[in-house]
Specification:
Layout lengths: L8 H8 L1 E5 L4 H6 L5 E2 L2 H8 L11 H13 L9 H17 L7 E4 L8 H5 L3 H8 L8 E6 L2 H12 L3 E7 L2 H10 L3 E4 L19 H14 L4 E2 L7 H6 L5 E4 L1 H9 L31 H10 L4 H25 L1
Parallel strand pairs: 1-2, 1-8, 3-4, 4-5, 5-6, 6-7
Helix pairs in contact: 3-14, 4-5, 5-7, 5-14, 8-9, 9-10
Length: 333
């Protein structure tokens, strides 16, 4: 008789949710894939592009140089974009294309966070065009554009979706943002379970993790019949991951994917699917007064969670802007 291998927590998670890899390291999906989608952002890109080999040399030096050369050749096509900025988008697309063979769904690329408050600049990103230029055989309908969840960013998502481009509203911390994202037709939202700071300050712990918001958003979408899917992100432990089993999608960092794959499903004494357990009742919610009124949305967002949601969003945009600066620095070396 054939062997019956022990199920892992990763197997269990995949039975409840579409599992995505949150990395640009191709070795992760090679080992643990295939995954549904692959998510990324400027911090993930900077981490990958600054990796060194055993001799202290950049493992992506050639990729970076090729991206700069490509961006320089396209400068006349994008006259309002610096070569360094275009090179950053190109670097991220090049990294994403290496992972495509291990995916069933979308490659997610985040727009320049410096345009988080500029709808038109966000809409004019070159990400889809770069995918087409670098790999004409790749189905560009499998590109998902990640955009910070400001009023301007979510309006940019509305326009991109109207052109058939999938979007994910990221840096998501409250129901006001989630309602607006569904209203404009985003393909995904990414509720941050932990504020972004936890990944850059080892002594910091988020005391207000967003499990409740994440569950509320998914139940709200199912109640209103929204096409938008919930894709929680910014996780710090396999215990957090397993509590979120049952989310439409979930994106998980490499070290947590490895732990999930190495942990037997039985025995497992942690919670599983508790955020989406049956029988949780939600108070009726009506966001109709804010989804088409910019000033009303801004005030509601500012007041949400006594201001905590907006503070976390601003913090995340700042961190991503710092990483964007770092990536542009690599392009200028």
């Amino acid at each position: 008789m054939g062997s019956n291998p022990q199920k892992s927590l990763l197997d269990v998670l995949r039975s409840y949710s579409a599992v995505d890899s949150d990395t640009f390291d191709v070795e992760v999906p090679k080992k643990l894939g295939p995954f549904v989608d692959c998510t990324s952002n400027q911090a993930i890109a900077y981490h990958e592009l600054t990796r060194l080999d055993a001799d202290g040399n950049s493992i992506h030096a050639q990729l970076i140089q090729n991206a700069v050369d490509f961006a320089s050749s396209k400068s006349s096509t994008y006259p309002n974009v610096s070569v360094a900025e275009l090179a950053v988008e190109t670097m991220m697309v090049k990294l994403a294309l290496r992972i495509v063979p291990y995916l069933k769904g979308y490659s997610h690329i985040q727009t320049n966070p410096k345009y988080a408050y500029n709808k038109q600049k966000t809409v004019e990103n070159g990400i889809v065009a770069i995918f087409k230029d670098l790999d004409p055989t790749y189905d560009s309908r499998r590109v998902c554009i990640k955009v910070p969840s400001t009023w301007e960013g979510i309006q940019a998502c509305r326009e991109l979706e109207s052109h058939g481009i999938a979007t994910l509203a990221t840096t998501m911390f409250c129901m006001e943002q989630a309602a607006l994202a569904a209203h404009v037709g985003c393909t995904y939202i990414a509720p941050y379970i932990n504020e972004l700071r936890v990944h850059f300050d080892e002594n910091y712990v988020d005391q207000h993790k967003a499990f409740g918001f994440c569950g509320s958003a998914q139940r709200y979408y199912e109640k209103i019949g929204s096409k938008t899917q919930v894709l929680p992100a910014s996780l710090t432990s396999i215990q957090e991951v397993m509590k979120l089993a049952g989310a439409h999608h979930i994106t998980v960092a490499p070290h947590l994917l490895t732990k999930l794959a190495d942990t037997p499903a039985n025995p497992w004494e942690g919670e599983t699917r508790s955020v989406f357990a049956d029988g949780i009742e939600e108070a009726p919610s009506d966001y109709s007064s804010i989804v088409e009124d910019e000033s009303a949305f801004r005030l509601a967002f500012t007041r949400s969670q006594e201001g905590k949601a907006e503070v976390k969003n601003i913090q995340a945009i700042n961190i991503f802007c710092d990483k964007q600066d770092g990536l542009e620095g690599l392009a200028r070396q």
